[in-house]
Amino acid sequence: MAHTQKRASWIREGQIAVVGGALYGLSHTVSGHPLDNIKAAMQLDARYRGLSTFAVASRMWREAGLGAFARGCIPPLWGSTVYRSAMMSSYEATYTALDAVDPKATTVGRILHAELLGMRPLVVVSSVACSVFRAIFESPIEYAKVMRQTGRPWQWGEIYRGAGTQVARTTAMLTFIFVPYDAIRRHTSWFDTLYGQWIVVTLVCGASYALAWPLETLKNLAQAGRPRAGASVGERLAFLGGVRGLYAGAGPGIVCGGFRNGIAMLTMAKYHALATHWGLRAETK
Predict the structure, then answer these.
(1) Repeat Solcar: residue ranges (predicted)?
(2) 212, 176 in Cβ contact below 8 A?
(3) 115: helix, coil or strand?
(4) Which of 63, 166, 173, 204 is the most exposed place for a label (fewest CB within 10 A)?
(5) pLDDT per position as a tens digit, 132-170
(6) Segments forming the whole domain that contains residue 70
């Protein structure tokens, strides 16, 4: 994702990113799950409707103590390592393969590398590919997490409930992340240091969460079956108290999204540097 190391083949980069994505997912969950639980309570539990982030956290503490902030952590703890491994490996493999298409030799290459306002089609295509691949693994895990966060058992027959909304949310979110990330990496010197990478990832991911937040809320409602399984968008808006409710939990969610992705990026960047040091990219010319 940082692309600060010399690149190997698309197959090798995909293989290296399997471990890098797993480390990213592990640190992502550990650093942000308490805030994620506060966000889920604000989105899915009518008892917390209209309360501030601090008020929700205080009430959760009074009702269940520390367990309220750890509830539902098992599915994302192991699951995040799986689906982010899938996400990062599919992104790196797709990006590396498309980046290798010579823009001077083929029309496809010229289209893939063309740039408009910092956006390159090869990054968009890679984002969509990894979003779909990630959703295959993530949807069941997110469904189980949301059900546990709301104190209800999950059912095997429902593990892909809300998968369509999951794909839409993930595609929007990752495109909003990877496109500006790629432009900043190529046109600035911010990626020369780990601190610069952390700042970029934290801010870009926070902004991406803000832009895609309505889809995040609808995704959680669909997976939780609120107000009922298969409810229409209109019914879900009514459950939320109107359009404004689409941003329920946005405060802790956006802060959490930026913070935990920044921390995870530091972990993965260090791993990629070590991968080069250990000779895992030895086939690089």
Answers:
(1) 12-97
(2) yes
(3) coil
(4) 63
(5) 988 898 888 888 888 887 888 888 889 899 888 889 999
(6) 10-277
